[in-house]
Amino acid sequence: MKNNDDWNDCYREGQMPWDTGRPSPELQMAISRYEIQPCRAIEFGCGTGTNCIWLAQQGFQVTGIDVAPLAVKQAQQRASAVGMEIEFLAADLTALPSPAVLNKFFFDRGCYHAVRRTDAAGYVSAASRQLVDGARGFILAGNAREPHVPGPPVVAEKELREELGVAFEILDLREFYFDEVPGVTDRFLGWACLVAKR
Known about the structure:
The chain has 198 residues and is an alpha/beta fold. Helices cover 34% and strands 28% of the residues. The chain contains six helices and eight strands; from the N terminus they run ααβαβαββαββαββ.
């Protein structure tokens, strides 16, 4: 399991196999499929900000959180380059206090499946604190039905339902394949999970 310095080193060395440089096609489909209207939103594990920028361009008021300060710096630069005002914070999600204004939507492409390896309960509690009751979230995580090395961390369906179910109702759960990353030919099986805060 990477510590905070390890994540920062990944961005310093350009070793980010999870960063496609494009908005997540699954997120784009989810916003339409589930009729999620622009609102105050937060992305956990925002990386270089691609998905935050896309959400902001759709009218969402977005905050991006990442544990790696270099990722946040790159996200700020990327948002500035396209004229988008987005709040980015370098912080450990599990240590975040409740914000002054809670969010109605969250997106997570890979934060949950990394954090859960050491603190699944901490992830769920922290995520819940950022949200109004009834807020929806969309989580993309590696799927243990097709284990792979290298590739994203994986979680079994039973584990996902038990861990997230502490604070969230699972509204939809389906399998998908992560989009291709430049230089990586494999596409890894994942879970696409729509949740609502209880």
